[in-house]
Predict the 3D structure of the following.
Amino acid sequence: MKRRALIPVVTLTLVTCWGGGALAACPDFGPPTVPNVTWTIGGQVTGCPAGDSTGVANHPSRIRVLVTYQDANCNPRVGVPPESLYITWQALSGGNARINDKSSNGTYADDSTNYNGQTRFTFASLSGCGGIRLSLAVSGAGQGHQDVQIRSVDSDIDLERRVVNQLGYDFPGCDLNWDGISGGAVDQQIIAAHNDHWRRNALHGTPQRLTNLCESGCEPLDLKTIGSSDISWSPNGRWLAFTIETPSDDNCRVHIVSADPSTRALRQFTFGAVDDYGPSWSPLGHELAVGRDLWKIIRKGIPGVAADTNEYVVSQSGSATLHGDLTPAISPDGQIVAFARKDQTTKAYNIWKVPIGGGTATQLTFFTPPDTVNEQYPQWSADGQWIVYDRENSFHNGHRIWKVKVDGTSKQEVFYPGPGMNAATPAFSPDGLIMTAGIGAKSETIADIRAHTLDYNLAIKKPILNYPDSKYAIAGLDPVLSPRIAPDGTRLGLRAAQLYAVRRNMNLPPIFTNVGGSVHDTTAVKNFSVVAGQDLSFTVTATDPDDGVRTYHVAYVDQPGMSFDPGLRLFFWDNAGPTGTYYVKFWVTNGTASGGAQNGAMDAIIAKITVTSSGAARMDRPLAMRRDGSGDWIAQTEPVPGGDMATLHIVDVAGRRVARISGPSGGELRWDRMVVGGRRATPGVYLYDLVNGAHRHRGKIVILDE
């Protein structure tokens, strides 16, 4: 839309010459000589789990490894993919130092090797105190190891990896300023300055440029520049939607680019004499919502993905001259669009919502004259219960972060950056535990609006700077940096003079492998069908490449009879209906539900459930199973014509047969909790299927006692 501190690091330098599997130094004359590997450590580290600077002179806050890769003649090996270079780490005895959120099985380089044959590894989030051993491999060949000494403000490395400045936790800590005194006055001051800094504040990897657009002095006018607009990730994390402006015709159009910087595959999405801004990718994967000409919201199917690629108006107000609806954001279930609407009387913008298919829009935020507010750029929480947005109290008076519930209640300020500062274009992380925003000076000339993370649940908010390099920063009274974490939680994208995205450089995320049947890691939607009045149940399962703890979550379980047991991973809808289509979102995170060991890596999928009115009739509700005083479970069947037999099938949540009981219809079928093999059923959840002639009833039994 058209609205206009550096962290020190430890550098280990490795020069690698490669020749037929042997490492070789290159003399001034003659052939390569003996193998040679050089590692140079720049200093001892004083780090923080949030990845920010601890300010200790001569003791960097991050570990950065520079690798130079050459051939036998010491010519640079250019374009070697990051997966061909990796570092493993292990803690040395005598300490508790840790590198957070980097798999001990191997961390890839930040990017491919450049024209000098160089690339880097960055380790930002550090905890504990002691030694770390780093081991490098290049193209599968080990290159030796190097030890690094770490002292961090998170000395106790508790489950959350959060700095807690009090006795029994990180206070007084270890010798942070390396003066030989552990827990001294200076150490205590350093810890206090980082109180509540959290591993989740650290973003990993290095942003890589995805576009090749004009940045300054863009003449002739047909040179294209990046649009002042939000960006949006595809649900599978492989693509980014953004806008490109063409000065020659003064139009802005939506484009889609590969998130893989090695390809920079770019394609145009909207066409014509239009100004399109703020693309929002549907979590269902098939369409984008776009703000057009600053007064209407349209949606359009993605060619090659959606069968229907026509454009449809979702909402509109005002006109192209007066302006109206803009900055759309599609809800986590793909059914609602939050957006900003201009009040044509007060000229203020407020947050509204409307069904994705169009219809009556509902206002969510209001203001009291004579104040004027500018509320734009809404973004949804993972569970669809909150909308965070960018708010100005009067125009050009500094951007702040606010949030409101989806029903319009509980409107509140989240973060005020202070006078002369902006906190703009906020967004929730995919798991909802942190926020990202562009934070910096409110200035047309000072380019220091940079990506920050924010633990918004703290009483005193402490934004943490990530990616301080100036090329990832912008200036502006109304800045649109739009830092957005990818759906899998492992990478960041942002819009500066170019579009940037980080290669994955942290623990691999968990992946859904089964949602009532097998699914692929690129699956956005799994389809289900059930007859109205019948029951629907299925389990969800995810794997974790790093064998982390997995926690399951659900949203939009809002119909009568719907439930989800995260421990059993069991979704159940008792007496499904009424007829229609329903969307339930599941996501799995790497760690505990409270965020303790959670590093933000995750996976999500949507179950699309269609309830139909046709099919075999279902038995009446009184036929559901009940428990009698003896602890047996009883199904009372009704008589059916022809005197058919009734059969009760019972299985566990994995689908394994537990019991089968048969008897004449009209009588009782009793399960005494004995299972196949002659033992008694253990506590847990069991599924039953009661078949009585042409009728059937499905449900679940929960056994709590032995």
Q: What stands out?
A: Residues 6 and 468 are 6 Å apart (CA to CA). The longest strand covers residues 141-152. Helices lie at 185-193. Residues 2-11, 14-24, 29-38, 616-623 have pLDDT under 50 and may be disordered.
